[in-house]
């Protein structure tokens, strides 16, 4: 356990060296405050030493939602970080890799590599849910109502009406920002989207919703620096045969685990499905 260092010169000002034995080489580490309160103290030091360096905030604070860029001089294999928020809560993480460039401070602790915050993860999930359900599983992208006949098809295809998606390449690029390539490939191969004269068309469909499903509970589980599970627990409602409709009584709970993985510099869902 490191000891807090309390008596050091005050001329620290965000520029310090972990290892004076190495030639100075500047490195920037961005510390992102994703708490809903201010951070009052931040300590960093080489993992090989017993004491923390000086509080790099000094008399300042790091507001909620703000980022602090820390300039480090020196070379090191690993380093440790201690953060203390306005309420005195301490969050410590040891052995960050020496080439770390981003650290997120969240209510779950300190996370490496610019991992998304809970708010960002929920936004990613909502975008993935919209694309998966509304554009594929339960419907299609909106259309102009202008149908064209496609050789070999019984029904006409309608031109897609979307501000940013006008071709199959656009659709694939958007999906690739949400899902891994294998998920994207399955979505497209099982769909009726196709380019007609270079413009995206689709055979419209509307699958409707599942009335057997009730309230949902959403959880974010951080497995590692490169894997996050977005868990959705859904109430299954009782079917009342006398009324031929679903009631309010919950008879079961269905759990869906959607994996977010850090792949090729992006956080993507590696599995997905309807709820």
Any overview of this molecule?
This protein is mostly beta strands. The protein folds into 3 domains: 98 residues, Domain of unknown function DUF5300 (Immunoglobulin-like), CATH 2.60.40.2890; 63 residues, no CATH class; 57 residues, no CATH class. Helix content is 14%, strand content 42%. It is built from 3 helices and 16 strands. About 7% of the residues have low confidence.
CATH superfamily of the largest domain: Domain of unknown function DUF5300
What are the low-pLDDT stretches, counting only 5+ consecutive residues below 50?
A: 5-24
What is the strand content? Answer: 35-45%
* Termini Cα gap: 46 Å
Q: Cα-atom Rg, whole angstroms? A: 25 Å
Give the total of beta strands: 16
Largest sheet: 5 strands, mixed
CATH topology (fold) name of the largest domain: Immunoglobulin-like
How many separate domains make up the residues?
Answer: 3
Q: Secondary structure elements and their pairing?
A:
Layout: E1 15-17, E2 27-33, E3 39-46, E4 67-73, E5 78-85, E6 90-97, E7 102-106, E8 109-112, H1 118-137, E9 143-148, E10 157-160, H2 168-176, H3 181-189, E11 194-196, E12 199-202, E13 213-224, E14 227-240, E15 245-263, E16 266-269
Parallel strand pairs: 1-4, 2-7
Antiparallel strand pairs: 2-4, 3-5, 5-6, 7-8, 9-10, 10-12, 11-12, 13-14, 14-15, 15-16
How is this structure best summarized?
This protein is mainly beta and 275 residues long. The chain contains three helices and 16 strands.
């Amino acid at each position: 356990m490191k000891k807090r260092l309390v008596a050091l010169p005050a001329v620290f000002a965000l520029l310090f060296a972990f290892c004076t034995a190495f030639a100075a080489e500047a490195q920037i580490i961005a510390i992102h405050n994703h708490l809903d309160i201010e951070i009052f103290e931040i300590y960093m030091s080489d993992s090989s030493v017993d004491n923390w360096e000086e509080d790099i905030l000094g008399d300042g604070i790091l507001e909620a939602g703000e980022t602090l860029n820390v300039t480090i001089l020196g070379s090191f294999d690993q380093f440790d970080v201690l953060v203390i928020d306005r309420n005195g809560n301490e969050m410590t993480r040891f052995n960050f890799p020496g080439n770390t460039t981003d650290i997120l401070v969240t209510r779950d602790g300190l996370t490496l590599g610019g991992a998304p915050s809970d708010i960002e993860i929920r936004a990613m999930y909502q975008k993935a849910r919209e694309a998966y359900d509304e554009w594929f599983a339960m419907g299609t992208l909106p259309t102009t109502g202008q149908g064209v006949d496609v050789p070999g098809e019984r029904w006409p295809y309608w031109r897609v009406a979307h501000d940013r998606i006008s071709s199959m390449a656009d659709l694939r690029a958007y999906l690739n920002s949400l899902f891994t390539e294998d998920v994207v490939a399955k979505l497209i191969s099982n769909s009726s989207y196709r380019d007609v004269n270079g413009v995206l068309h689709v055979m419209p469909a509307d699958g409707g919703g599942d009335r057997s499903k009730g309230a949902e509970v959403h959880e974010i589980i951080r497995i590692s620096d490169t894997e996050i599970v977005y868990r959705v627990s859904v109430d299954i409602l009782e079917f009342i045969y006398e009324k031929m409709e679903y009631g309010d009584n919950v008879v079961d709970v269905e759990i869906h685990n959607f994996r977010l993985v850090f792949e090729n510099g992006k956080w993507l869902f590696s599995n997905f499905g309807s709820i």
